[in-house]
Structure formats: structure tokens, C-alpha cells
């Protein structure tokens, strides 16, 4: 569905935001686009949506997306950072969506407006932040587009509406084969939805692959410092993403993606070394925090 090689993009006054990105995203999956603020997530989505010029090779539906109707007619970019016209009412936005997209589903649009309790006569400008996010999501889901690019589409939604948002995404994947690229910071909420992860930081790719691999191949080892060191020494050279000194000893997060065959050996080695060493899988959020060096 999407392939980039050596992708570089930015803005005239701000310079390059993306620097030589190479990655692939398959069709019919939910891809999590993650990274800290300023990493270039919105810039990347704009490139994929055909809105921003770039250097390097980028293919969406096997075509360079920039200003290309064959791509833009099958793609929708939604989120507060992709704003809609201020003076248009929600009702007019839906009417324009019906005229714009060949696969428009008016019944689905009406259903989602009701579920988000959107006031149809209000202008986009007068909507709350959460209502703007909801209006953008309604347009995306009702568009019938094959590729949904969602740029933090939950911003401003309260807990109840965010839960509704995730239910709607699950429904969309069941109702109609779609490819969704979801830019998110809410990894603890979205993790179960994601098939793959594309983690970018400082304009570069750090992870591009199945979310399940991260869960199985990045492990946490906790125990007395000497025992943790003995486990690591027996395993041989493996990347250590993070090391924390704790009151009970040491916590180490190791990356086995280069040597996945060692995953079972880690658990066995920990049992052999000491009954005081605990090995466990980590959440996607913990992986990202470890790789970015942030505190959890």
C-alpha cells in the first residue's frame, strides 16, 4: 500500500523535518505512527496524502502521491491539524463530503454524527476541540476511502468519546477493508488495535514492523543487580535499550529483534541464575519510552 525510500520532506522556512525515511506499510492493516512531538508525524501524513512535496521515492497505491488525483481520491487525512473550513456548518461539511467522495456513505455519516452528538447547524469554527475531532473523523469514516490517515483524531475527546472512537475504528475494519495510519500518543489505549508500528524520532525511522514482534522480542529483566548482570553476560551481546537502578536492584530492557531465537533462553537463563530475577514482556508504550530515553 505504502512504500518510502530515502524520503526527505519539510517546509521552506523550517527546513527538512523528515530525513531519509525508508519504510513499508501493508494494506488492510492498522498502522500506529508514533513518536515524540516534533518527530515529523504530521509532515509524513501530509506527504502520504499528496499535500506536500518531497524528495526521495514515495509510493501510495504504487503512485507518487503529490497532487495526484489517483491517490487523493482514495485517501482522506483527518485530524485537528488538517482543519476544515471555519465557516461551514457540520451539515455543509457532510454535503461537501458526499459530493467529494465517490464511496460516500450518508447513512454511516448520520449514524456517527448522532453517536458523537454533533450539532449539525453549528459552524466548524464554533465547535469545541473534541467536536472538531469528531467531525473530522465522521468525514473520514463516511468517505469510503481505502486509506485513512488519522492525525491524533481523538484530541479533545473525553474518556467516553475516546472509547467510542476506538469502537468506531474497530467497526470500520470489520465493515470494509481499509488501511489506517493512526498517529497517536495514547499507546495504552490504542495498542490492541495496532497491527504494526512505525516509530519515528528526529525525522528518522527507529521501528517499522509488526506490533506483536515488539511485544515478544523486547523484554524487561528485573532483580538484584549482580543477578541481572549474570543473565545478560550468559546471553551474550544484546542491545540494552534502558537500564535503571532500583531499590530492589536493577531493571534492564533488552532488544532481541536481531536475535529473536534468544527469547525463550532469557526466561530459562533467569531461572538458572536466580529465583529472584523476573523476566516479562513490556507494553508498546514502555518500548517507546525505552527507545526514546524518556521516563515512564
From TrEMBL:
Transmembrane segments: none annotated. Residues 2-227 form the ABC transporter domain. It holds the Pfam family ABC_tran. Keywords: ATP-binding, Nucleotide-binding. One of its GO terms (molecular function) is ATP hydrolysis activity. PANTHER family: SKFA PEPTIDE EXPORT ATP-BINDING PROTEIN SKFE. This is ABC transporter ATP-binding protein. It comes from Corynebacterium halotolerans YIM 70093 = DSM 44683.
